[in-house]
From TrEMBL:
Name of the protein: Cyclin-dependent kinase 1
Species lineage: Eukaryota, Fungi, Fungi incertae sedis, Mucoromycota, Glomeromycotina
Gene Ontology cellular component list: cyclin-dependent protein kinase holoenzyme complex; cytoplasm; nucleus
Species of origin: Gigaspora rosea
One function term, GO molecular function aspect: cyclin-dependent protein serine/threonine kinase activity
InterPro entries: CDK, Kinase-like_dom_sf, Prot_kinase_dom, Protein_kinase_ATP_BS, Ser/Thr_kinase_AS
Enzyme Commission designation: 2.7.11.22
Family: Belongs to the protein kinase superfamily. CMGC Ser/Thr protein kinase family. CDC2/CDKX subfamily.
Domain Protein kinase: 5-286
Broadest EC class assigned to this enzyme: transferase
Gene3D superfamilies xref list: Phosphorylase Kinase, domain 1 (3.30.200.20), Transferase(Phosphotransferase) domain 1 (1.10.510.10)
Coiled coil segments of this chain: none
PROSITE patterns linked to this entry: PROTEIN_KINASE_ATP, PROTEIN_KINASE_DOM, PROTEIN_KINASE_ST
Keywords, sorted A to Z: ATP-binding, Kinase, Nucleotide-binding, Serine/threonine-protein kinase, Transferase
Top-level lineage group: Eukaryota
Length: 294
Protein backbone atom coordinates (compact mmCIF):
# COMPACT_ATOMS: atom_id res chain seq x y z
CA UNK A 1 0.00 0.00 0.00
CA UNK A 2 2.80 2.43 0.87
CA UNK A 3 4.30 1.78 -2.57
CA UNK A 4 1.20 3.28 -4.17
CA UNK A 5 -0.04 5.95 -1.72
CA UNK A 6 1.36 8.47 0.74
CA UNK A 7 -0.74 9.31 3.82
CA UNK A 8 -1.02 13.07 4.30
CA UNK A 9 -3.34 13.59 7.27
CA UNK A 10 -6.24 12.04 9.18
CA UNK A 11 -9.55 13.64 8.25
CA UNK A 12 -12.10 11.43 9.98
CA UNK A 13 -12.65 8.51 12.32
CA UNK A 14 -15.56 6.25 13.30
CA UNK A 15 -16.50 2.72 14.32
CA UNK A 16 -15.54 1.54 10.83
CA UNK A 17 -11.94 2.80 11.03
CA UNK A 18 -10.03 5.92 10.00
CA UNK A 19 -10.12 8.13 6.89
CA UNK A 20 -6.96 9.84 5.63
CA UNK A 21 -6.23 12.34 2.91
CA UNK A 22 -3.57 10.69 0.80
CA UNK A 23 -1.70 11.10 -2.46
CA UNK A 24 -1.16 8.57 -5.21
CA UNK A 25 2.58 8.33 -5.83
CA UNK A 26 2.36 7.71 -9.56
CA UNK A 27 -0.02 10.54 -10.48
CA UNK A 28 0.14 12.86 -7.41
CA UNK A 29 -3.66 12.69 -7.37
CA UNK A 30 -5.19 13.42 -3.94
CA UNK A 31 -7.48 10.64 -2.74
CA UNK A 32 -9.41 9.63 0.38
CA UNK A 33 -8.04 6.51 2.06
CA UNK A 34 -10.49 4.64 4.29
CA UNK A 35 -8.72 2.19 6.59
CA UNK A 36 -11.28 -0.45 7.58
CA UNK A 37 -10.94 -2.58 10.70
CA UNK A 38 -11.30 -6.31 10.16
CA UNK A 39 -13.57 -8.35 12.44
CA UNK A 40 -11.72 -8.72 15.73
CA UNK A 41 -12.30 -12.43 16.31
CA UNK A 42 -12.06 -13.83 12.79
CA UNK A 43 -9.76 -11.31 11.10
CA UNK A 44 -12.16 -11.34 8.16
CA UNK A 45 -13.69 -8.53 6.15
CA UNK A 46 -17.17 -7.72 7.44
CA UNK A 47 -20.20 -8.51 5.32
CA UNK A 48 -21.22 -4.84 5.23
CA UNK A 49 -17.78 -3.88 3.85
CA UNK A 50 -17.97 -6.58 1.18
CA UNK A 51 -21.42 -5.31 0.22
CA UNK A 52 -20.21 -1.70 0.02
CA UNK A 53 -17.27 -2.68 -2.20
CA UNK A 54 -19.50 -4.77 -4.45
CA UNK A 55 -22.01 -1.96 -4.94
CA UNK A 56 -19.45 0.80 -5.50
CA UNK A 57 -17.29 -1.21 -7.88
CA UNK A 58 -20.28 -1.56 -10.20
CA UNK A 59 -21.51 2.03 -9.76
CA UNK A 60 -20.75 4.65 -12.39
CA UNK A 61 -22.51 7.95 -11.83
CA UNK A 62 -21.24 11.48 -11.25
CA UNK A 63 -23.38 11.81 -8.10
CA UNK A 64 -21.97 8.68 -6.45
CA UNK A 65 -18.49 8.71 -4.94
CA UNK A 66 -16.01 6.64 -6.96
CA UNK A 67 -14.18 3.70 -5.43
CA UNK A 68 -10.74 3.80 -7.06
CA UNK A 69 -8.89 0.92 -5.43
CA UNK A 70 -8.97 -1.71 -2.67
CA UNK A 71 -5.89 -2.96 -0.84
CA UNK A 72 -5.77 -5.74 1.77
CA UNK A 73 -2.67 -5.45 3.97
CA UNK A 74 -1.98 -7.38 7.17
CA UNK A 75 -4.97 -6.78 9.48
CA UNK A 76 -6.49 -3.85 7.60
CA UNK A 77 -8.42 -3.22 4.43
CA UNK A 78 -7.86 0.09 2.63
CA UNK A 79 -10.56 1.54 0.38
CA UNK A 80 -9.33 4.32 -1.91
CA UNK A 81 -11.96 6.89 -2.97
CA UNK A 82 -11.98 10.06 -5.01
CA UNK A 83 -11.26 12.92 -2.64
CA UNK A 84 -14.08 15.20 -1.48
CA UNK A 85 -13.09 17.91 0.97
CA UNK A 86 -16.46 18.39 2.68
CA UNK A 87 -19.72 16.66 3.48
CA UNK A 88 -23.18 18.23 3.38
CA UNK A 89 -23.38 18.34 7.19
CA UNK A 90 -20.38 20.69 7.33
CA UNK A 91 -21.93 22.76 4.54
CA UNK A 92 -25.17 23.06 6.52
CA UNK A 93 -23.36 23.83 9.79
CA UNK A 94 -21.65 26.73 8.02
CA UNK A 95 -25.01 28.29 7.11
CA UNK A 96 -26.97 28.77 10.37
CA UNK A 97 -30.04 30.16 8.61
CA UNK A 98 -30.22 27.58 5.83
CA UNK A 99 -28.46 27.22 2.53
CA UNK A 100 -29.10 29.66 -0.34
CA UNK A 101 -32.22 28.59 -2.25
CA UNK A 102 -30.30 27.96 -5.48
CA UNK A 103 -27.85 25.68 -3.66
CA UNK A 104 -30.71 23.78 -1.99
CA UNK A 105 -32.19 23.16 -5.41
CA UNK A 106 -28.87 22.06 -6.91
CA UNK A 107 -27.99 19.64 -4.09
CA UNK A 108 -31.51 18.20 -3.92
CA UNK A 109 -31.52 17.60 -7.65
CA UNK A 110 -28.14 15.89 -7.53
CA UNK A 111 -29.18 13.79 -4.52
CA UNK A 112 -32.25 12.64 -6.43
CA UNK A 113 -30.12 11.85 -9.50
CA UNK A 114 -27.88 9.62 -7.39
CA UNK A 115 -30.85 7.90 -5.74
CA UNK A 116 -32.61 7.41 -9.07
CA UNK A 117 -29.47 5.67 -10.34
CA UNK A 118 -29.38 3.40 -7.27
CA UNK A 119 -33.08 2.54 -7.37
CA UNK A 120 -33.00 1.85 -11.11
CA UNK A 121 -30.31 -0.74 -10.33
CA UNK A 122 -32.36 -2.17 -7.45
CA UNK A 123 -30.16 -0.79 -4.67
CA UNK A 124 -31.50 0.73 -1.45
CA UNK A 125 -29.04 3.04 0.28
CA UNK A 126 -30.75 2.85 3.71
CA UNK A 127 -28.54 5.42 5.43
CA UNK A 128 -29.04 8.76 3.72
CA UNK A 129 -28.07 11.70 5.93
CA UNK A 130 -26.04 14.88 5.43
CA UNK A 131 -22.87 13.24 6.80
CA UNK A 132 -23.05 10.59 4.06
CA UNK A 133 -23.37 13.09 1.21
CA UNK A 134 -20.03 14.44 0.06
CA UNK A 135 -19.33 17.67 -1.79
CA UNK A 136 -16.65 17.11 -4.42
CA UNK A 137 -13.91 19.49 -5.42
CA UNK A 138 -16.15 20.46 -8.36
CA UNK A 139 -18.87 21.57 -5.93
CA UNK A 140 -21.21 18.71 -6.80
CA UNK A 141 -22.93 16.38 -4.36
CA UNK A 142 -22.06 12.66 -4.26
CA UNK A 143 -23.66 9.78 -2.37
CA UNK A 144 -21.27 7.86 -0.12
CA UNK A 145 -21.18 5.28 2.71
CA UNK A 146 -23.01 2.32 1.25
CA UNK A 147 -22.34 0.05 4.24
CA UNK A 148 -26.06 -0.43 4.94
CA UNK A 149 -27.07 -0.56 1.27
CA UNK A 150 -28.45 -3.74 -0.23
CA UNK A 151 -29.83 -5.14 -3.41
CA UNK A 152 -33.55 -5.71 -3.44
CA UNK A 153 -35.83 -7.88 -5.50
CA UNK A 154 -39.50 -7.83 -6.37
CA UNK A 155 -41.40 -8.97 -4.36
CA UNK A 156 -39.16 -7.70 -1.58
CA UNK A 157 -38.43 -10.19 1.21
CA UNK A 158 -38.31 -9.54 4.95
CA UNK A 159 -35.68 -6.91 5.80
CA UNK A 160 -34.34 -5.53 9.06
CA UNK A 161 -36.00 -2.32 10.26
CA UNK A 162 -32.88 -1.33 12.21
CA UNK A 163 -31.44 0.84 9.44
CA UNK A 164 -31.29 4.57 8.65
CA UNK A 165 -29.98 7.06 11.23
CA UNK A 166 -32.79 8.03 13.63
CA UNK A 167 -33.53 11.60 12.46
CA UNK A 168 -33.85 10.41 8.85
CA UNK A 169 -35.68 7.14 9.52
CA UNK A 170 -39.16 6.82 7.99
CA UNK A 171 -42.21 6.13 10.15
CA UNK A 172 -42.81 2.65 8.73
CA UNK A 173 -39.42 1.53 10.09
CA UNK A 174 -40.07 3.21 13.44
CA UNK A 175 -43.36 1.28 13.55
CA UNK A 176 -41.53 -2.00 12.95
CA UNK A 177 -42.24 -2.69 9.27
CA UNK A 178 -40.16 -5.58 7.90
CA UNK A 179 -41.31 -5.21 4.29
CA UNK A 180 -40.26 -1.99 2.61
CA UNK A 181 -38.80 -0.62 -0.58
CA UNK A 182 -37.49 2.59 -2.15
CA UNK A 183 -39.80 4.77 -0.05
CA UNK A 184 -37.37 4.52 2.88
CA UNK A 185 -34.73 6.43 0.91
CA UNK A 186 -37.25 8.98 -0.34
CA UNK A 187 -38.32 9.86 3.21
CA UNK A 188 -34.67 10.47 4.08
CA UNK A 189 -34.34 12.72 1.01
CA UNK A 190 -37.29 14.74 2.32
CA UNK A 191 -35.67 15.13 5.74
CA UNK A 192 -32.38 16.26 4.16
CA UNK A 193 -34.23 18.66 1.84
CA UNK A 194 -35.95 20.24 4.85
CA UNK A 195 -32.70 20.45 6.81
CA UNK A 196 -31.03 22.39 4.02
CA UNK A 197 -33.86 24.92 4.23
CA UNK A 198 -33.24 25.82 7.89
CA UNK A 199 -29.93 24.17 8.90
CA UNK A 200 -31.97 22.33 11.55
CA UNK A 201 -33.15 18.72 11.35
CA UNK A 202 -36.94 18.68 10.95
CA UNK A 203 -37.46 15.67 13.25
CA UNK A 204 -34.94 15.55 16.11
CA UNK A 205 -35.94 12.61 18.29
CA UNK A 206 -33.72 11.10 21.00
CA UNK A 207 -35.32 7.63 20.87
CA UNK A 208 -37.52 5.71 18.43
CA UNK A 209 -40.76 6.64 20.21
CA UNK A 210 -39.68 10.26 20.57
CA UNK A 211 -38.78 10.30 16.87
CA UNK A 212 -42.27 9.05 16.00
CA UNK A 213 -43.84 11.73 18.17
CA UNK A 214 -41.67 14.43 16.59
CA UNK A 215 -42.98 13.32 13.18
CA UNK A 216 -46.60 13.13 14.39
CA UNK A 217 -46.27 16.58 15.99
CA UNK A 218 -45.64 18.13 12.56
CA UNK A 219 -47.38 15.83 10.07
CA UNK A 220 -50.24 14.83 12.35
CA UNK A 221 -50.92 11.47 14.01
CA UNK A 222 -51.83 8.99 11.25
CA UNK A 223 -54.89 6.76 11.41
CA UNK A 224 -56.40 4.09 9.16
CA UNK A 225 -57.98 6.76 6.97
CA UNK A 226 -54.66 8.57 6.42
CA UNK A 227 -52.55 5.39 6.33
CA UNK A 228 -54.54 2.22 5.56
CA UNK A 229 -53.01 -0.77 7.35
CA UNK A 230 -51.11 1.21 9.98
CA UNK A 231 -52.75 -0.73 12.82
CA UNK A 232 -51.13 -3.92 11.56
CA UNK A 233 -47.61 -2.56 12.05
CA UNK A 234 -45.94 -4.14 15.11
CA UNK A 235 -45.16 -0.95 17.03
CA UNK A 236 -48.42 0.91 16.40
CA UNK A 237 -50.43 1.75 19.55
CA UNK A 238 -54.01 2.99 19.59
CA UNK A 239 -53.07 5.10 22.63
CA UNK A 240 -50.68 7.29 20.62
CA UNK A 241 -51.31 10.99 21.37
CA UNK A 242 -53.33 12.78 18.70
CA UNK A 243 -51.63 15.70 16.97
CA UNK A 244 -53.03 17.74 14.11
CA UNK A 245 -50.94 18.46 11.03
CA UNK A 246 -48.88 21.64 11.04
CA UNK A 247 -48.60 23.26 7.57
CA UNK A 248 -45.09 22.94 6.15
CA UNK A 249 -45.37 26.31 4.40
CA UNK A 250 -45.66 27.90 7.86
CA UNK A 251 -42.49 26.16 9.01
CA UNK A 252 -40.60 27.29 5.90
CA UNK A 253 -42.41 30.48 4.80
CA UNK A 254 -39.38 31.67 2.81
CA UNK A 255 -39.47 28.64 0.49
CA UNK A 256 -41.42 28.65 -2.77
CA UNK A 257 -44.74 26.93 -3.31
CA UNK A 258 -43.05 24.36 -5.56
CA UNK A 259 -40.39 23.57 -2.92
CA UNK A 260 -43.07 22.92 -0.29
CA UNK A 261 -45.07 20.86 -2.79
CA UNK A 262 -42.08 18.57 -3.40
CA UNK A 263 -41.34 18.31 0.33
CA UNK A 264 -44.92 17.26 1.03
CA UNK A 265 -44.68 14.52 -1.61
CA UNK A 266 -41.46 13.21 -0.07
CA UNK A 267 -42.94 13.13 3.45
CA UNK A 268 -46.14 11.21 2.70
CA UNK A 269 -46.95 8.61 5.35
CA UNK A 270 -47.96 5.76 3.03
CA UNK A 271 -44.64 4.48 1.64
CA UNK A 272 -46.08 3.38 -1.71
CA UNK A 273 -47.53 6.88 -2.27
CA UNK A 274 -44.25 8.69 -1.58
CA UNK A 275 -42.89 10.28 -4.74
CA UNK A 276 -40.25 8.21 -6.54
CA UNK A 277 -36.88 9.72 -7.46
CA UNK A 278 -37.68 9.59 -11.18
CA UNK A 279 -40.91 11.55 -10.71
CA UNK A 280 -39.36 13.94 -8.20
CA UNK A 281 -36.79 14.99 -10.81
CA UNK A 282 -39.70 15.98 -13.08
CA UNK A 283 -41.36 18.11 -10.39
CA UNK A 284 -42.01 21.74 -11.29
CA UNK A 285 -39.60 22.78 -8.53
CA UNK A 286 -36.76 21.92 -10.92
CA UNK A 287 -38.21 23.62 -14.01
CA UNK A 288 -35.82 26.57 -13.80
CA UNK A 289 -32.58 24.82 -12.89
CA UNK A 290 -29.63 26.31 -14.75
CA UNK A 291 -27.05 23.57 -14.23
CA UNK A 292 -26.40 20.38 -16.19
CA UNK A 293 -29.05 17.71 -15.67
CA UNK A 294 -27.87 14.18 -14.87
Amino acid sequence: MTDKYIKLEKIGEGTYGVVYRAKERKTSRVVAMKKMRLESFTGRISYTTIREISILRDASHKNIVRLLDTILQEKSLYLIFEYCDMDLKKYIDGAPFGLPVDLIKKFTYQLLCGIKYCHSRRILHRDLKPQNLLIGLDGNLKLADFGLARDFSNPLGVLTHEVVTLWYRPPELLLGARYYSTGVDMWSVGCIFAEMMSSYALFRGDSEIDQLFKIFGILGTPDEHLWPGIRQLPNFKIIFPIWRRYPLDQIFPWMSYDAISLLEKLLIYVPSQRIAAKMALRHTYFDDINFSRS
